Every structure is written in structure tokens, then in C-alpha cells.
Amino acid sequence: MLSSLNILADQGGSFWQAPSASTIAPQVDWLFNFILAICVFFFVLIFVLLVVFAWKYRYKEGDPPPVGPKHNTALELTWTFVPTVIVVVIFVYGFKGFLQMAIAPPDAYEIVVSARMWSYTFRYPTGHVDNVLHIPAEVPVQIVLNSDDVIHGFYIPAFRIKKDDVPGRYNKIWIVADALQQGQKEATYDIFCTQYCGQGHSTMRSHVVVQSQDDFSAWLKQANIFVGTPAEHGKHIWETMGCNQCHTTDGSAGRGPTWKDVYGSTVALKDGTSMLADEDYLHGVITHPNSHPLPGFDPIMPPTQGLLSEHDVGDVIAFLKSISVHYKPTLPVSAPGASTPTTAH
């Protein structure tokens, strides 16, 4: 049951709210509960008065015609000034919280969040890019938001922050994650998109991992060093840059063409022509998405400028080769100069 409920929100928290995990969350919760209490109070008051007045002033056979209501200055002033005071309190408290979330401290650690259909990528000052947000606890972190295609809504319920990713501009919001509990290594919370952004909107999810400052520094240092072959790095890019949202590697249908066996194959294009999917073709469609439209697929791939270096593109192509039956490299089984190479299948 809990696992199914966790599809919609993080486990824990209250009936009304996700767990509180940031310094701004208590302030947001207070305002939410204040507005909720006001709504409940006036709903009950109006409902009770409605029932009482409907009974007390119901029509009775033989009663004289009722006298019309008279002007009541005290009553009119009450229902004018009391709601005005309540609304002003809500505005002042809410605007204060809005400004607090909008203006980051000058020493805030900055992470750039790029949204696209239908994934998030997180770029750190070191240049590392990941599909999961890692932040240190008890440290101001400024989130810089942008979008590669349409409007997305960056929302972390446990932190009580939400800001839109808008194409062509940068939005900012900042947070301080709560300290980890005694003995807790890290805490993980959900990230959602709140703006309907197309077919994959409901699956546009990620996570934020809160770590101690020492653990975060150690993680970031290790994350910047990828140890593995070019093909393994290409797979890592496929997993972390959102490519797996549309492109499968098992041959099954996706929102985009599958990557399995595409290298070395003959690709039929939308205009009726065909091309060999060699390195030049793959480089072109990776760096210039939708340059060769395919039948049955909408041109929805976002741009990759600034996200992938030439080295990254080469590693993605190496990964595409490794999962294609059309690629059969010849690998030496002995030192250079030995006479008999064998073919790997």
C-alpha cells in the first residue's frame, strides 16, 4: 500500500503534506494550515447558519408576509473589515516567504537544472552532469532553471519549492535542506513536473539526494571521474541525460526509434529516401536532432547544444555500436605484432 501511495508523494509527512525537509517548509506549512483553518471555520459557520435560518424562517401556513431586511451598518462593516484583515495577513506572510525563497544568499552553491521532454539533468559547477540531484545538508543551494523545449514545472514537495522551467530564460530558487537524522547517511525525496508538457509528462520524475557535506564532496569528486570504456560511458550518458526516456535499447517501441541494432543498418527516412546509419549519420542526428525525420515519429527531440561534447558524442556512438548486430570489431587476442586476430561476435 505504501509503495503505491509513494507514486504520488514521498512516504511520511502528514495527511495534507509530504515530509518537511527544508528550512522554508515550516513557514509554508504554517501558511497552508492557517488558510485551511480559515476555510474550515467559515465553511462550518456558513453551513450551520444556512441550516438554522432555513429552519427558523421557513414558510408557515397563515403567517403574515415577512418584513424585508433592514440596513445594518455594524454587520456590513464586520463582513468587510474582517475578511480584509485576514487577506492582508495572508498576503504579508506569503509575500515574505516568496521573497525569502527568491533571494539567495551570495555564498549559495549553484546547480543548473535543465528540463526537456521528459527528464531533468543537473549540472554542477565542476561540470558534472547527472539525472539525480545531489545536495549537501544545511548548505544554501541555488537552483537555476531553464528548459530546452516547453514549459516544465520543477517541484520538490518535501522542500515546498516549485518554480517553472521556461524556454529562453533562467528562473532561480534556493533551499537549505534539513540536517540528516542521527546515523542517517542520506535522504531521498521526489522531484515532479507540475506543468503538462506532453505525452511523457506523468513519467517526468527524478529524485533529490540529501547528503552530509563531507559525503557530498566525496560523491562529487568521484562522480567527475568516469572509469570505463567509451561504450560504457555512452551507456552512462543514455541513462543520465534522459535519452532512455524515448530511446530503448532492447528493440521495443518508444517515443523515439530504438537504439538497438541501429548502427550499420539502413534507415528509411520520412521523405522516402534512406541512409546508412554509420558514424557520420549518428553524429548528425545526435548533434542536430530532427535533421533526418523518420516515419512514425514526431520531431520532439530537444537540442543537445551545450550538453554533449564531441567526446561525449563519440562515446554515445561507441555505445550504439556495442548494441548493434551490424558491428563486429576485430580484436587482437595477443600483443601487437602477433599474427592471428580473431573476430568478436
List the helices and strands and how they pair.
Layout: H1 2-5, H2 25-56, H3 73-102, E1 109-116, E2 119-123, E3 129-130, E4 133-136, E5 140-147, E6 152-156, E7 161-165, E8 171-176, E9 186-193, E10 206-211, H4 213-223, H5 230-240, E11 266-268, E12 274-276, H6 279-287, H7 310-322, E13 330-331, E14 342-343
Helix pairs in contact: 2-3, 5-7
Summarize the structure in short.
The protein has 345 residues and is an alpha+beta fold. It has helices spanning 2-5, 25-56, 73-102, 213-223, 230-240, 279-287, 310-322, and strands at residues 109-116, 119-123, 129-130, 133-136, 140-147, 152-156, 161-165, 171-176, 186-193, 206-211, 266-268, 274-276, 330-331, 342-343.
Protein architecture, described:
The protein has 345 residues and is α+β, with helices and mostly antiparallel strands. It is built from seven helices and 14 strands. It has a five-stranded mixed β-sheet, with no helix packed on it. The protein has a five-stranded mixed β-sheet with strand order 4-10-9-6-7. A two-stranded antiparallel sheet has the order 11-12. A hairpin with a 4-residue loop joins strand 6 and strand 7. Helix 2 (25-56) runs antiparallel to helix 3 and helix 5 crosses helix 7 (310-322). The longest helix is centred in the first third of the chain and has 32 residues, at 25-56. The model is unreliable at 1-7 and 330-345 (pLDDT under 50).
